[in-house]
């Protein structure tokens, strides 16, 4: 039996404080260098030397200004503001690497699909097929106000928009140019055979796009499609579209169930059960000895900012203003806060317990602190028992978190046959995930219908989001 | 008296055939490599070694499909299709250079200002202040149809939109963050002083944008503002906004007049007469001997595609279908073509003469072919008599055109004191154009009003475009 190998992406964001708030102040942390090109080129070279699949870039297009009724906490903490565009660091990282993949987050809600399609095709060309796209539908109220809206678009409607957005993208990426359209025939002075390129003439509820796509076909055509799910609408959407799903869960059972739900949904959409890979955010703190691990836990833990976490969580009350022994659920009911906050706080949790939990390094099931053997044991359990395929490595310190993983955990995983020894030369990101010859979306993925030019004339049935 | 030095940008586009159609087939031309990252990194290193000010990237966001009622000619010729996003090659070029500037074309008509503001600030950070923006308002009918419109937005309305677009950008770039907002105070755990960052709360006729800007202040804040003018609306717009104007003219007199008109307009907007630099597109073919020049003229000339030019020019008739001796103006009147075509063809020009002219290397006043001495004589005349400040070097061959200029013309210009000998370490693109200490827009530029937070609350008077 071949052992399942771990896929590893570094979880990054083009900002000071992404998800481990407060740690930017550590003197060895490089996060304050995010505005500098050499931060990104050094990081890319480190990750490629360590055999990472990809660097995965989160993004938001607004500010967290719900907590304490303003952006002050986010600004003070450097919490996802300032933050720069994530796409623009990819070409620089691509210029100094040959194999590392790049996942980039982009929202379907506020920017036109034609321009985005071209940007992703450009990245796929420049990287020779090393890009993936994390599909999101924006959730910050401030993001809506940055793009002309008064309020956020309703959740299910955001998915309707996203579904049509992808329909447009697929027509451009998969249907507008044939594989053999570009002939580069110097003798007859023909760069492209015009009979193999076409308008898409998309007319839908939200978009009207003529085409043709401006880019010739790239290695992957459609970038690898990543998505985080949770809601019924999100699961329906992922069933049709996603190739890599970010999942999670608080227990072995919930994780297995979440994965099975998604596989069933993919099958319902005519796809193979293993056409989706499952990735979780993992927090890993390691060291050569237990003492070194304990030192790191202490050093990181004492810097964590609970205020940063409350602002990130968009909490409409400041728990620091309440007595530690009060029960959070009572505050939520008394202040008439949205019921979703009741899901986040266990019924009996006190303010003190909640603050301690939010200020803790341990953010749930996929947390492990220990020597490389302990970490590798746990990772094997995640792979074999929980059924995940890979991790987004949460960074406490850059570059220390990635370097520790590469220097300590990777050799141990390799000894156990759980981590690749080298990249396959010239492979695309999709091939790295799904195997040689799989550079493009498989034939049973929804998008592949547009490889038949006739399909461009037949509107696809939009997904229904009744959930 | 100090001699005026020449500013030089390479005129580029992320495509096969930009403005010298047909020449991509030459065996020594590298244009077919535009999809590859190393095309751009090699080019950038060549230009920096030659002391160029910048590489200047043109762009369109649609296809030329008027000529022969379809995109076939453009596709066959590789004429600006396929074409990739221009912004995304900049970070790769920045990663392998330290001084070279980057000008990028972006249209204000179809994409939201908030996202564009962030992308340009990101580029300004990554390049440490080496970026400029060529402001355009899109003119291809197909571009409109790629972004949900049935027809192009009316010309003067495009400028109204652009004027408000820049108002939004200036508020984000100049007004949203104070210079000293980012404190990086590790001891007190403060990355940004929240009292020095603000919402912009822009509400106008076309845009509604809350802010704050997501990026901290970059070296230049506002990128260097480039614009091509011609129409009365364009001149009015440039008077308020532009720092570098692409100009031209068919004679010494028209060039001087165009420059003077622009300087007067800048003064009418409260700016200094020399607050605008003037750049023309120049065609330069050079060689070590007259014979070498003649060989290049012949080799390039016989490859030029007149069909590519007709498609580029969006000509609604195919002149190749008419007798060579027929007068073009008569065809234009008979076929009831737009009167603007009458401006392009002299009253008596025959079809044969027009085809020869469109298929000629010599595209007007700023064309010179000769040994370096001949070229340098002509450049000195452009600088001193015509009053220009720089050129966008038109490429016949990449990299041959740039390499010839660097190896042959630059040494001759340096001997004459007409070309800088070295870059100033750490200077921004704006400082290179306007002098040390001028990294940001000057205090009498319209945008500078937003450095006073109170100005964000007082709507600026929009420009009037009655022309």
From TrEMBL, chains A, B:
SUPFAM superfamilies: Bacterial luciferase-like (SSF51679). Keywords: Flavoprotein, FMN, Monooxygenase, Oxidoreductase. This is LLM class flavin-dependent oxidoreductase. Gene3D superfamilies: Luciferase-like domain (3.20.20.30). Residues 28-389 form the Luciferase-like domain. It comes from the Bacteria. FMN binds at residues 59, 105, 155, 159, 231. One of its GO terms (molecular function) is oxidoreductase activity, acting on paired donors, with incorporation or reduction of molecular oxygen. Pfam families: Bac_luciferase. Belongs to the NtaA/SnaA/DszA monooxygenase family.
């Amino acid at each position: 039996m071949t052992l399942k190998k771990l896929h590893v992406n570094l979880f990054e964001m083009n900002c000071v404080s992404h998800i481990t708030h407060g740690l930017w102040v550590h003197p060895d942390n490089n996060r304050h260098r995010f505005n500098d090109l050499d931060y990104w080129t050094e990081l890319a070279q480190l990750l490629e030397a360590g055999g990472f699949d990809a660097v995965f870039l989160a993004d938001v297009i607004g500010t967290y200004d719900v907590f304490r009724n303003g952006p002050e906490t986010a600004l003070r903490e450097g919490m996802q503001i300032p933050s720069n565009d994530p796409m623009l660091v990819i070409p620089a990282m691509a210029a100094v690497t040959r194999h590392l993949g790049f996942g980039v987050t982009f929202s379907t809600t506020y920017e036109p699909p034609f321009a985005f399609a071209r940007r992703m095709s450009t990245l796929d060309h420049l990287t020779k097929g090393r890009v993936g796209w994390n599909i999101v539908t924006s959730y910050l109220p401030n993001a809506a106000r940055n793009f002309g809206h008064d309020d956020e678009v309703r959740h299910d409607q955001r998915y309707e928009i996203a579904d049509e957005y992808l329909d447009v993208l697929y027509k451009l990426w998969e249907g507008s140019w044939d594989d053999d359209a570009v002939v580069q025939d110097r003798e007859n002075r023909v760069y492209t055979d015009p009979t193999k390129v076409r308008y898409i003439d998309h007319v839908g509820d939200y978009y009207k796009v003529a085409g043709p796509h401006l880019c010739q076909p790239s290695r992957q055509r459609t970038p690898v499609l990543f998505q985080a799910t949770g809601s019924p609408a999100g699961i329906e959407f992922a069933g049709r579209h996603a190739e890599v799903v970010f999942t999670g869960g608080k227990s072995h059972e919930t994780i297995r169930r979440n994965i099975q739900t998604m596989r069933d949904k993919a099958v319902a959409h005519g796809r193979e059960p293993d056409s989706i890979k499952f990735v979780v955010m993992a927090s890993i703190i390691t060291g050569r000895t237990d003492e070194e691990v304990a030192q790191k836990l202490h050093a990181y833990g004492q810097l964590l900012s609970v205020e940063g976490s409350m602002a990130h969580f968009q909490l409409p009350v400041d728990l620091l203003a309440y007595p530690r022994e009060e029960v959070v659920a009572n505050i939520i009911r008394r202040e008439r806060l949205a019921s979703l906050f009741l899901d986040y706080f266990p019924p009996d949790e006190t303010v003190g317990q909640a603050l301690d939990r939010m200020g803790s390094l341990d953010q749930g099931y996929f947390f492990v602190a220990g020597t490389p053997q302990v970490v590798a044991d746990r990772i094997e359990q995640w792979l074999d028992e929980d059924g995940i395929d890979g991790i987004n490595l949460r960074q406490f310190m850059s570059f220390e978190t990635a370097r520790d993983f590469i220097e300590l955990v990777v050799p141990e995983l390799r000894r156990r046959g759980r981590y690749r020894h080298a990249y396959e030369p010239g492979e695309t990101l999709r091939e790295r995930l799904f195997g040689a010859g799989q550079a493009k979306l498989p034939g049973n993925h929804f998008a592949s219908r547009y490889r038949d030019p006739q399909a461009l004339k037949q509107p696809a049935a939009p997904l229904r989001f009744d959930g």
